[in-house]
Amino acid sequence: MTCRADILQGDCLETLARFPEGHFDLVVTSPPYADRRARIYGGVKPEDYVNWFLPRADQFRRVLKDSGSFVLNIKEKVENGERHTFVIELILALRKQGWLWTEEYLWHKRNCHPGRWPNRFRDAWERCLHFTRNRRFKMNQKAVMVPMGDWKHKRLRSLGKNDVVRFASQVGSGFGKNVANWKNREKAFPSNVLHLATECGNKAHSAAFPKALPEWFIRLFTDPGDRVLDPFVGSGTTCVVARSLGRHSVGIDADPGFCAIAKRAIAGSPTEASLAFEAPPPAPSALAR
Amino acid sequence: MTCRADILQGDCLETLARFPEGHFDLVVTSPPYADRRARIYGGVKPEDYVNWFLPRADQFRRVLKDSGSFVLNIKEKVENGERHTFVIELILALRKQGWLWTEEYLWHKRNCHPGRWPNRFRDAWERCLHFTRNRRFKMNQKAVMVPMGDWKHKRLRSLGKNDVVRFASQVGSGFGKNVANWKNREKAFPSNVLHLATECGNKAHSAAFPKALPEWFIRLFTDPGDRVLDPFVGSGTTCVVARSLGRHSVGIDADPGFCAIAKRAIAGSPTEASLAFEAPPPAPSALAR
DNA sequence: AGCTCTTATGAATCATTGA
DNA sequence: GTCAATGATTCATAAGAGC
């Protein structure tokens, strides 16, 4: 199956009005952080961020299926020596708007930005806030199981008593008294912490997140053939990934330059169909450790 | 030097009134989470948590030195399928009280609690909120440096072309690698993500955090001889660690049972002086990956 | 297959200057 | 003074190629 991946230029606040209720299964996005990409988004100030975001989130909610998820990758900046509070204020505001704050996943950035300061260390993590419309929602946990890797094979071959205990606790099965259960199992469920390196080819148009991030959430919260929306699509990563996973997608960006880049990225990217012949699907091994 | 490690029984709200202003250099604690340890703290409900906590935090602030830090290890629980908001509300309230929300460190629990649910994965992280009274505060970054990997030695012998080029072209915000910085450097600075395994030693009195957690913050935010406070000391971990690091400490707990346990733990634990003869100081390698 | 070595890579902060 | 803009400074790692 070849899936549609449409890029629309405009402010998602207006662009989304064209879409019917309950059209999408997943909204996943990394919005312009406050004060970043100032030229394009008019440099929303941190203190205005919530008010800027809310009406857009209202649209996201309208076009999202009842069983859908909304994943928001965001991190507050430091201002005046303090972490700014606009993100946690946004969480509270979104709840008032009717969203459920179901979970907060963490993206641990293995390669974070360099730097050194007297009052803090380098920032190596971002939030992936998971909101839903309902307590019951679609979640395919098996789709993101991680291989246990060499580690398991080496360890299990020679079973010292300590090894068994340590093995069980590291995998998180706890109570892994019955190691035999694990021997035949190749995969383990991940936790709510994702370990991903950032990747960004294009310096001029830095991608917000590495492909593996939307990939993880698309696998987790949608089925093949479902519809994915990224209302701040930037260089197109979400749509490229969605297509390669066999999901339809819509990406919106206010900046014509980004839209052009996104379209090119999609045109040059493999579809699921082509992947099936050319290469194995991306290994989830890189996703969560 | 043998340091005092005093355990006081009582509610820290009242107990701290005996202490003068600016007595402590660091407050580090893992408070009874909402709804946990209900018998002892009267089972503070999540919705009452902020109001319960605030007057105590006011005392913490009073007895903390101007250059001091307050580290709060906490994680919101899931209620009714949602993450509760009492922690982020607490952050906002503490700022209103005059605290600066300087940073949010993460404790990534390498071996988190087992379990499986249809709508979420295992929770593998907790917040370590860092509050200060001032923008300038005591921070000994070198005290928590971690050994570098072996790769460093080889690295210096033959520098990749990329290293040289990027460093040379310091124009245009290219990343530079000042190799001189690496000469004679055996250790690396950590990031704001801590990778620590939980200790599951005594299940009867579930330790709030592993020793390595208070150890890291005590090293980072105090000097030897400084004074550390844990107002919800539980089984005494903070005081045990503080003493072994040569810091004076006060631990407070409302529960006489915990106080007894804490006192025993301290009595049976090594002082810094004894450690100097018996064993090398704890290797920081275990602290942050 | 393991080991060595090479290369790629990043949504940052802070201090200072100018309006 | 307060605010805004600019520039200087800053690491550590993982993945892959090669032997």
Give a verbal description of the structure:
The structure is a homodimer of 289-residue chains. Chain A is an alpha/beta fold. Chain A folds into two domains: 5-145 and 189-270, Vaccinia Virus protein VP39 (Rossmann fold, 3-Layer(aba) Sandwich), CATH 3.40.50; 150-187, no CATH class. Helix content of chain A is 33%, strand content 21%. Chain A contains eleven helices and twelve strands. In chain A, the strands form three sheets. The first copy, chain A, has an eight-stranded mixed β-sheet. A two-stranded antiparallel sheet of chain A has the order 4-5. In chain A, strands 8-9 form a two-stranded antiparallel sheet. In chain A, strand 4 and strand 5 form a beta hairpin. The first copy, chain A, starts with a strand and ends in an 11-residue tail after the last helix.
Q: Count all strands of chain A and give the number.
A: 12
CATH topology of the largest domain in chain A: Rossmann fold
Mean pLDDT of chain A: 80
Q: Identify the most extensive interface between protein chains.
A: A-B, 44 and 43 residues
Q: Output the structural class of chain A.
A: alpha/beta
> For the largest beta sheet of chain A, what order do the strands appear in spatially?
1-12-11-2-3-7-6-10
- List SSEs of chain A in N-to-C order: EHEHHEEEHEEEHHHEEHEHEHH
N-to-C span of chain A: 31 Å
Count of separate structural domains of chain A:
2
The CATH class name of the largest domain in chain A reads Alpha Beta
Known CATH architecture of the largest domain in chain A: 3-Layer(aba) Sandwich
